[in-house]
Amino acid sequence: MIHSSESIILRTKTSIPALKPNWVQRRRLVEVLEKGTTGRLTTLCAPAGSGKTTLLAQWIHSSGCRSSWCSLDSRDNDPLRFWRYVCHALTDAASPAASVRIRELSQALPGLSLPVFLDAVLNELAALEERLILVIDDYQVIREDSIHANMAYFIDYLPDSVHLIFSSRIEIPFSTVKWISRGECTEINAGTIPFTLEETFDFYHRSSDLPLKTEHVQKLFHRTEGWVTGLQLLAISLRSQKDIDLFIEQFTGNHRNVADYLFHEVLGGLPEDILEFVLQTSLLERMDADLCDAVTGRDDSESILDKLRNWNIFLVPLDNDQAWFRYHHLFAQFARSFMKRKKPGDVPGLNRHISECYAGRGLLDEAIEYAIAAEDYSLADRLLVQHLPDVWQRGESVSLLRWFDSVPARIVRTPEMRLLHGFILLAAGKLDRSEAVLKTVEADHENMEASERRRLILSGLLFMKSNLLFYSGEYEAWYRFADGIKDRFLPESPLFYGFNYNRREPFVRRTEFGLKGALSSDTEVIGSRFIQVLESKGWQDTLITLYMNQTLAEGYYELNRLQESHALLLKVDRSSATGQIPGLSVPNRLMQARLYKARGQHRLAHETIEQAIESVVKQHLSESHWLHYLRAYQIRLYLMEGKVLQAKKLAGLLPGFSPKDKPALHQEYVYGTLARLLGAQRREQEALHLLDLLKPQAAREGQLSVLMEIILLQALFEAERGQSASALGYLHEALQLGEANGYIRSFVDEGAAIGELLRKYRDQRISADDSQAGLCPGAAGDEVSLVYVDRLLDNFTPQTAAAPAQNRLIEPLTRSESSLLELLARGASNKDIAQELTLSIGTVKVYLSRIYAKLGVTSRTQALIAARELELKTADGKYG
């Protein structure tokens, strides 16, 4: 699943509804809405057909404010889909620069947790200079509790420049009491929104050429209680009445279902071919002429839609061009029920046909929904398999799970589909259900005859159980299953082979796959065994194996086991798959550069980053977060070398980032870099402010390695400011976190200043009275072992602090390899080298691979730099 796909956004869901001609001006409610914008929230809650959408559209069109609109439907119960649509709506009204950044944030999902994402969106909104209105229409369709909880958080921190309006048939399902009590919430409810008598007169005057008397209008108003849709239905029905006086006299408003009665009157008055069109298209949630033609088999849908619009038959325009429409919700519900009563046998086939029409347009979300409605589960499964990679990349696992769960238990699904179902359940955290599904797949596998399909099922099971391992921790059960597989090599299951574990982070250890920085001896043993088993089945180049190797390499680096780390980094780098996945290749190159820097090979570190930047730009990712991470590390390199001016100049290549920002955690690596730059410019107070904003976010997300960096920087900057006690307090906090996870390089990479603080910390601890031992600067129960402090200090010896290049090779070069290195230094091509040394080009490539491996590099340029830094002499006695 290495595809990347943005969610298809339906523009009609974020278009402000067009106003109908002859609309009634509702000045009293418009004034309420206008006054409400001084607060943060307005709720408009009233039953269907009350005129909520029309009222809001009328106000927005007349207000002159920057306004955005988001219409919801039942599919928006997926949290990521919901917030993507909210973001898309916001981009219609925000400034161009803010719109670009908000759009990038929505595309970053699911690489961000929702709290981090919401913080980032709120930061963008806080920077807006003009007032912005956001309307969320039909909120009653949202039933997902997590969306309600995140929306309450969003409202709590909404900046003053943004006003949020909810339109819903029911009360908002989260408490609004606190905002009401502060005067920050305006309410319009079912008792306020009906037409007044004056508005009723205006309505019939504008929308009807009927000869209604004053007493007629008064009676209709009182009998409908100003219900907007009831009045509209009556206006349509009255056109077909021969005796208006008798009809109004007999209409008491006490019908068991006034709407059903009146809708029946409307449908009964339509010509037969128009009625057939309305019934068939009533199954559509939104439509244009082309879609109506495809569904009905007609070629005159545009003409019929024009007639319905002119007759005011509850057709709601969804865009200013009036190309897309929907039926009024109540009318659509009635028409669908009428269709099911009149032609029950036609509905499944029509739903199937609609599914195929949507699929033909590439709208697979809708296609799947209609296939399920048609109870054509084989069609639904085919569409699911086709659509799953894109939906998964969008992170909309809630939608996937709902689709899978929509198939009744009585339907027997293929083992492949059950594997997918098990994986979606696992991703949703439903471990028990996932394991139960996998057991049925295992049983199917046991009963299958030997075949390629059987081996693919087994391959999928190994992948699934390997991922389940991260959640369950049942390592022995996994070993037994893996060891029981007799096949020497398993085929790469196309459904799972390319699953990408990192879409946002600069280092894999910061992802959930990398346990967010947690380290232990168990994780090392398990990781190594895991890789060994997967590679024994021929999965050396699968992303799960490469990611595991990268994670282990990053862990080895933190534990200061640099040689083991480097070997794994080169192993990952050599895989052809790595270069195609920036979530793997960028962390790999960043780690190689960090390792070269740790060894004192500064030029190699710079060269590695420059090569990585070239690669990212070639992949057209020049505006992405991946490039920002690489630029940020370049800045860090310059700062470590004391080149502050070069670092400051390079910081100009990070557009949109400023120390004055309110940073969000998903950009921590860049903001952490800016904090370092501020510190180098003796602007410690500004740097500390940035870190103070990032720290609680990192703690909330459980990002241990991120938190460690922040705390150590706080210690360093406080020490620079002469705040020794505060610096030691932060150092104590870092030591607690570091000791629990065995961290070493996090401390060592910060250089001599941290070493100095560590010695000061140790001296204070030793000189403390027995009664205070272990309590300074922490509190009882917070002791840090001095053994751990001493172990860290052992890595701050003059030799390691200076980090010189290691003047030895992993293995000495042979004379032939030295000769080849000399030719490399002269700029010879592979062909030139082959001719000079009378070798085949293939043999030259083999020699080059050996040289790269011995030097611990991956390219010609790096090989020459390494040769110079290691002071290697070529065959003629000169330095490479």
From TrEMBL:
SUPFAM superfamilies documented for this protein: C-terminal effector domain of the bipartite response regulators (SSF46894), P-loop containing nucleoside triphosphate hydrolases (SSF52540), TPR-like (SSF48452)
Gene3D superfamilies: P-loop containing nucleotide triphosphate hydrolases, Tetratricopeptide repeat domain, Winged helix-like DNA-binding domain superfamily/Winged helix DNA-binding domain
Residue ranges occupied by any HTH luxR-type domain in the UniProt entry: 806-871
Coiled-coil ranges from the UniProt annotation: none
CDD domains: LuxR_C_like
Protein's name in the database: LuxR family transcriptional regulator
GO MF assignments: DNA binding
Organism of provenance: Paenibacillus lutrae
Keyword Transcription regulation in annotation: yes
Alphabetized Pfam families for the sequence: GerE (PF00196), TPR_MalT (PF17874), WHD_MalT (PF25873)
UniProt-listed GO biological process terms: regulation of DNA-templated transcription
Classification via SMART domains: HTH_LUXR
UniProt entry keywords in alphabetical sequence: DNA-binding, Transcription, Transcription regulation
